């Protein structure tokens, strides 16, 4: 019986220019929202980051003040879980940013796999990446990205198709993240946090959701049409890129983020979250 894949269409409007930086930011936000809504982390990433930075700052202050206080084992055990999840997500997001922005490789898919192991997955979420708007000067689109990214995310997270895909929660398990990309044969492997791997093995019984991001980049790749010097540089860079790309063979490879994220629940002491007591 062939595997059934539920496809979810995500259309990026013209308000957001999907440059490599915007694409990486969008993917990272989807991953963070997915982990929270699938109950692998008990609070949104922004709060997760806040409590970890607060805890680490307090630990550093305590080290400078004098002898360490007697540790609370419940607090410390929960801190280790939260800290490990935060560090893993930090590695994932920095790796994705680098893959999108610092290499010429074309990212095809991001795969988020929930399960005890990569070959025993419960649910799989695949994010397909469209052709990005390359050749832009990223800093000229930062304001546009900050203004419109949250609009795009609200449209995704409040859509009925997204709600249906995350309707059933997943019990706390492991999370693995893969990247499928098209690379040049002669390119060096410079990925941060990722390593070459075999494609993920997805069984026919696994729930598989595919987020198909559609985007039609403008024919003009120049974001500084009114500045001749920038226009000439962009056109020249485009010619060089096209000329070199036509002579180099490309192939598909898979990479997996080193390590994994272990899902966890919040911990309470006298009905108060331990994170509030750090």
UniProtKB/TrEMBL annotation:
Protein name: Uncharacterized protein
A GO BP entry: regulation of exit from mitosis
A Pfam family hit: p31comet
InterPro entries: MAD1/Cdc20-bound-Mad2-bd, MAD2L1BP_domain_sf
Taxonomic source organism: Ceutorhynchus assimilis (cabbage seed weevil)
GO cellular component: nucleus
Signal peptide per UniProt: none
